[in-house]
């Protein structure tokens, strides 16, 4: 069997579809993770280590992967399944080891018989209570896309997308990786100009189009890839904390930086958000994923955006860090700001969102109020069923 045929067989068997002719550089983060799974299977590994493998899958695809994993273990293969999705850990694993701060803090012999809350308590050292989304009446539309189309971007183009988010509302965006989420995020952030349609913030059309303009109009952004798009990992944390606004009077004058002001700002945010690091001059890349996400949140919220767009906000974070992030989002909502949350974690979207829009092949497959949405309904829309 040739290599392409073998790849196609693996992709079909494990619901890990990728175009083998696409450059790796064009793949979104989730697609790159999917590619790593395919590579390991292609090499015929006898021990497979899966780190957050379902972050890129629709519910139906995740269940297909679980069936495949069970078949592998029945044939003698070993699987190490690393996940923050405790319901999946309980469903798929035979034995569970819990880590906290690099140490083993517990071993669970029968995960299926252990509650998610008990697992979360072991992970965080305390009881974790999910934040509640109180009832709220959204206000005026604060950001809108009207019939927006784009050229191909990140493997997918947008085709006639119309969406809006209102004051005091969280709009969730669901979809299997590669169905237009990256293009949508970059259009809203001013990084990708639409080939057709318009983007408006607070009723005003974005002109001229670009990231600086949308920022000036009140948009905050936390990108999907913290390491390459969110921060300059080789430089001190303080530099990344002011990066989008380094040219403002607060941090520079006559083309020269104000190191004292930059460091003071970073120190203030480190205290306010409990960012665990040696200090503002620590290399940004040395932070854990959760602390890096806190730093990005602190950076954006410090400038009080009218609307915040965030992609995959808790990917790779433990339940404690994820709860912190969710609380900050709900705080913004309570202050009548608008949020767009792009996530492949449907439970996260159902917890946070007031409405959930599903992208499929660059189009809006459907928009559901949160109280009418279920994982099953969203999963069907994510796979193209209407």
Summarize the topology.
Layout: H1 3-14, H2 29-42, E1 47-51, H3 59-74, E2 78-82, H4 86-92, E3 96-100, E4 103-108, H5 116-124, E5 141-149, E6 161-166, E7 169-174, H6 181-188, E8 196-201, E9 204-205, H7 211-216, E10 219-222, H8 226-230, H9 237-241, E11 252-253, E12 256-257, H10 259-272, H11 289-301, E13 307-311, H12 319-334, E14 338-342, H13 346-352, E15 355-360, E16 363-369, H14 375-382
Parallel strand pairs: 1-2, 7-14, 7-15, 10-13, 13-14
Antiparallel strand pairs: 3-4, 5-6, 5-8, 8-9, 11-12, 15-16
Keyword list:
386 residues, alpha/beta, Rossmann fold, 2 domains, 6-stranded mixed sheet, 4-stranded antiparallel sheet, 14 helices, 36% helix, globular
How does this model look, in words?
The strands form 5 sheets. The chain has a 6-stranded mixed sheet, sandwiched between helices. A hairpin with a 2-residue loop joins β15 (355-360) and β16. It contains 14 helices and 16 strands. The chain is of the alpha/beta class and 386 residues long. The protein is globular. The two termini are 37 Å apart. 38% of the residues are buried. It folds into 2 domains: 3-124, Rossmann fold (3-Layer(aba) Sandwich), CATH 3.40.50; 141-218 and 305-382, P-loop containing nucleotide triphosphate hydrolases (Rossmann fold), CATH 3.40.50.300. The mean pLDDT is 88. α11 (289-301) runs parallel beside α12.
